[in-house]
Amino acid sequence: MGRIHARNLAQGVAGARLVKVADALASAAKRAGQDFGVAAETSLDAVLEDPEVDAIIIATPPRTHPQAIVRAAASRKPMLCEKPLAYDLEEAERAVAAARSAGVQLQMGFHRRFDPSYVAAKARVAAGALGSLQLFFTSMRDKHAPPDDVLRRERLLFDATSHDFDAARWLVGEVAEVHSFGTRASVRALRPGDEDPPEPGNVVTVLRFADGPIGVIDNSRAVRYGFDCRTEIVGSEGTLRIDAPRVAHVETLDARGSTRDYTSDFHQRFSGAYVAELQAFARTILADEEPSVMGEDGLAAIRLSLAAERSLRGGGGVAVSVA
Ligand SMILES: NC(=O)c1ccc[n+]([C@@H]2O[C@H](COP(=O)([O-])OP(=O)(O)OC[C@H]3O[C@@H](n4cnc5c(N)ncnc54)[C@H](O)[C@@H]3O)[C@@H](O)[C@H]2O)c1
Prior knowledge:
This protein is of the alpha/beta class and 323 residues long.
């Protein structure tokens, strides 16, 4: 993800310039530095100490985010942090508090908030075009599962579902209860009370929103046909669908029938959103404004992810208070 952000910055984001990249792995740092034509470092300190650096993007593994935020806050550098904010709620709360008390912006990497289709949908919902909101459905499914070593350290309900929790909160409102059900990548259902359930391959999370609507999120690690991210909101006066899976609007018709392309990964689907979120980040810093999606939104997503994991392990719905 760091390379995606670095490439976007190197290719031009209004108001921003890529100064340097850093990766604890020297070979990765060197390769990125060469690819994007900037200096490469192997420590965050070397970045924070550079007076040319006005702001940073944190795209390291989630466990390292809180410490990086605290250090950037101490150096008074605004930051964009990738989701999830952390896996540990207390560490995340301390990090958000550190940014707040230092008075530096902390933007969360919930890029759907900058995707043109999601932005248009939000504007219609906010204008009341759907009437009172009733139902929310969203899917995010990956084409292929990551390698086993990555799977072992990932947490689906944080790494993937946090995007959906944020979309739910942003588009519909606060979530009061979650109930998650999971299966492995094969279809064996995880049983409530499983001592140590393996990381699920598929999860369905049922939501009850504080103001009444209900919703469903489905996440899958390996559906094979493509990267599939869709959302539907049903209201008393209308229904809205966000569904943009095509790369090109070309349909091939032949002896096998009809074939249309499908986005194959998150970068292809959300390439414009990643640029737009960086543009918003640069604008926010230059105007010294509050980011539209901030550390507190990252905390809310963590509370929902933790509750969903608790539900998956123990069975039953789990009440959540995001405040
Ligand atoms: N917004 C999105 O769509 C999206 C997509 C993918 C990943 N992400 C997020 O981006 C982050 C990174 O994910 P990834 O898939 O690129 O991970 P990755 O493991 O591919 O890359 C992480 C890099 O960070 C380096 N690193 C690890 N610890 C470090 C430290 N303390 N200091 C400096 N460098 C360190 C590693 O050497 C590695 O090169 C995660 O939080 C992930 O959830 C977001």
